[in-house]
Design goal:
The protein is of the alpha+beta class and about 140 residues long. It is built from four helices and four strands; from the N terminus they run ααβαββαβ. A four-stranded antiparallel sheet has the order 2-3-1-4.
Length: about 140
């Protein structure tokens, strides 16, 4: 520790020069650094929501959720399929590998659900994507 103190006291010009170099390099790096507060992140998730008015959770699970799961579980790039059945509604979440093109995945899922045989009272399934850009920037 004494050697550092002695060096600083004897070589004031070298210390000033090192301080200026570090400061200039820090300012240069700070001004040229690419920064985003919310970067564009591709979230590999799709959610399929289906409403089935007047149905119990077990009816929704048997008549809506299971057929939807079976239709999408073998699509290309799917890693995990999870589902939840509520009263009057079904939610199926599909997790893909990160390399998957999500626009293509959404069209593939829509094609898989197009010829699905659902009960008469059930509405058409809606497919939605998670996106960091869809979150609100201001809430009042």
């Amino acid at each position: 520790m004494n050697s550092i103190i002695n060096f600083v006291l004897k070589n004031k010009f070298a210390v000033w020069l090192m301080t200026i170099i570090v400061t200039v390099a820090g300012i240069y790096a700070g001004l040229n650094m690419k920064q985003e507060s919310i970067p564009d992140v591709n979230m590999p998730y799709l959610t399929i929501s289906t409403t089935y008015p007047g149905a119990t959770p077990s009816q929704v699970a048997d008549e809506v959720t299971k057929p939807v799961e079976q239709a999408v579980q073998n699509l290309d790039g799917v890693s995990i399929v999870t589902s939840t059945s509520y009263e009057n509604a079904s939610s199926v979440m599909i997790e893909y590998e990160y390399e998957k093109d999500m626009d293509k995945a959404k069209t593939e899922a829509a094609e898989a659900l197009a010829n699905l045989d659902l009960p008469d009272n059930a509405k058409e399934p809606s497919i939605s994507r998670y996106s960091m850009n869809s979150f609100p920037i201001l809430a009042l």
